[in-house]
Amino acid sequence: MDFHLGSGTTASVAHKMNRRYIGVEQMDYIQDIVAKRLQMVIEGEQGGCSKAVGWNPQNPGLLDGDKYAHNSFVYCELAQANQRLVDEIMEATQPNQLQKIWAMLQDKGFLSYKVTPKMINEHAEEFADLSLDDQKRFLIECLDKNMLYIPFADMDDSAFTLTDNDKLITRKFYARR
User: Residue 126: inside a domain, yes or no?
Assistant: First the structure.
């Protein structure tokens, strides 16, 4: 388990050693760096520990009888909830965009328990006097950070509109073995 996947070295070595692995990364370069690197490993890349572990993608040995473990990997992203709103807030270029986002937050966003929308709305003029960057920071602080991503226990909630396939993959990932 690598909680800071970075460039994928741990995952690449684990793959070449025919071990099961899980890598976690919060940065958005996973497709450009790690996924491409693992694909190169599958295709037979011979750098790093390849010689030491005898890496041969055509004859990798079997892991618990899984004859396909050597030629694939699964890449998943967490399903976003409030993180989508954070992204929208950060992309806003005009105060009126932030006002629309604030209206949506009150209706559909998961606000922090510390936030009282009525009180904020009563001080809308003060909010309008803030710089665009300060308005963005304020709105992000209003969000419940525990809801940046959809919790497993809530994935069947119709408000999140997860696909049946996403739910199936998630359940398989968390299945007890």
Answer: yes
- Residue 171 covered by a domain: no
Cα 121–Cα 126–Cα 132 angle in degrees, nearest 5: 100
Q: How many whole angstroms separate alpha carbon 66 and alpha carbon 62?
A: 6
128 within some domain: yes
Cα–Cα distance, 16 to 41 (Å, whole number) = 7
Residue given tokens 């473990």 in the structure block: 69
pTM (2 d.p.) = 0.69
Which range of residues forms the domain containing residue 47?
9-71
Cβ density class 129-138: b for 16+ within 10 Å, e for less: eeeeeebbee
- 81 alpha carbon, distance to own chain's centre: 10
Query: Could you tell me if 116 and 136 are in contact, meaning their C-beta atoms sit under 8 angstroms apart?
Result: no
Per-residue pLDDT of the chain (177 residues; tens, 9 = 90+): 999 999 999 999 999 988 889 999 888 888 899 999 999 998 888 999 988 988 887 765 554 555 555 678 888 888 999 999 999 999 999 999 999 999 999 987 799 999 999 999 999 999 999 999 999 999 999 999 999 999 999 999 988 889 999 999 889 888 865
Where among 52, 71, 90 does a domain terminate?
Answer: 71
Domain count, the chain: 2
Q: Are residues 98 and 123 in the same domain?
A: yes
Residue 51 one-letter amino acid: K
